[in-house]
Amino acid sequence: MNSNILKNDFLLDPEITFLNHGSFGACPKPVFDVYQEWQRELERRPVDFLGRRAIPLLAESREKLAEYLNCDADDLVYFPNPTTAINMVVRNLDLQPGDEILTTNHEYGAMDRTWRYYCTKAGARYLQHHVPLPVKTHAEFVENFWANVTPKTRVIFFSHITSPTALIFPAEEICRRAREAGILCIVDGAHAPGQIPLDISALNADIYTGACHKWMLAPKGAAFLYARREVQTWLDPLVISWGYDSEPGFGSGKKFIDYHEWQGTRDLAAFLSVPAAIDYQRKQDWGQVRTRCRNLLGVAQAEIQSLTGLPPICPHPSAWQGQMAAIPLPDNIDGVLLQKHLYDKYHIEIPHTKWCEQSFLRLSIQGYNTAEDVDMLVKALNELLLFS
Predict the structure, then answer these.
(1) Which helix (H) or strand (E) holds 379?
(2) Mean pLDDT, rounded, for 327-345
(3) By three-state DSSP, how is residue 34 classified?
(4) Residue 2 confidence class, pLDDT cut points 50, 70, 90
(5) Over 237-291, what HEC string results?
(6) Per residue in 201-211, pLDDT tens?
(7) Which of 121, 224, 289, 358 is least enclosed by beta carbons within 10 angstroms?
C-alpha cells in the first residue's frame, strides 16, 4: 500500500512531520469512526448498552484480539494501558524481603517506578542487568542475562521491545528458560503488537501485557493483559466491583474475566474498536506495510549516521529491530534542545530519549510515513548539527 494513500487515512496534523508513533500511536480514520460510533451507541441507550450488551460485546472483541494474538480469549482482559495492567499484577505478588526481580536497564520509566515502589515496601530487590550497546547476538544476550539468575530470583521482567533503545529482546528464549526454572516471567509488550508478528501461545510467557493503541492502530486507552491459566487464580482485581464474587447470572461466567473486566461505569469504546483496527491492517496487507517501513527506517538510519559519524546500536536489518530505532547523538549535542528545535522550527515530532547518559533520537516509521518525511528530518538535522 502506497504510504501517501495511507497518510490520508490518518487524522494527524498535515503541518507536522510525525515520526513519533511509538509514544502514543495514531488511529486511522476508519477505526476512529467505529470508535466514535460506539461512544454514540453508549449515549443513545446507556442502560441497555452497559446493563445488557457490554459483557457480550467485550467478549466478541476479546475473541477477535485472541485470534490476532493466537491465544485463548478467556486468558485476555482489556486494560486502558500496560502500566495499569502491570500495577495490578505487581500488587498481587506478595513480595517478601530478599526476593529478587531480575530485569534489564532498558526498561520503560513507569515500569521501573512501579517495581521500585513495591520492592521498597516489601524489602525486595529490583536488579537491573546492564545490557551494553551496541548489542551483538540474541544468544549472547540470553546467556549474559541468565547469569544473573539466583536462588532468590522470584520474577523475571523485561520489555519485548524496549522504549528508550527500541531493541527487540529475545522474549521466547527467556520465557522458555524461566518456565524450566520455575520462575514467574512477566513481559512488557507495549510496543510489540502490530509492530512485529506476535504469537502469545508460542511465546509461553506467564503474563504478557501489550498496547493496542500503539502499533495496532486502535484508539487511545486500549491495551490487554494475558495471563496463563495457572497464574490467574491469584490475580485479584485492581478495582473491586460487581465482578468480584459476582451474583449468579452476572458477567461472563469466567472468574478471571469478571474480576478484572467490570470496573463500573466507564467508556468501553476503545476496547470495542480493537477488531476494527485489526480489520484495517488486514485490508491494507500490513505485513507488506511493515516491510516497507523497516526498509525506510534503514535508509533513515544510514543517512543520519552519516551526519553524526556514530555507529548504530544494532545491525540493520536484524532481529533486534522493527519499525523503531534509537539513533545515537554526539556527546556535544543537547538532545532536549535538539528535540525542541526540531519541533519549533521544522515542525518535526520526534522524541529524544536517554539511556546511561547516551542521548538518542528515537525514530518511528509507520505506514503513513514517506520518504519525504525522512528527507525533512535529515535536512533539519544537517542544518542543526552544523550549528551545534
Answers:
(1) helix 371-386
(2) 96
(3) helix
(4) low
(5) CCCCCCCCCCCCCCCCCCHHHHHHHCCCCCCCHHHHCHHHHHHHHHHCCHHHHHH
(6) 999 999 999 99
(7) 121
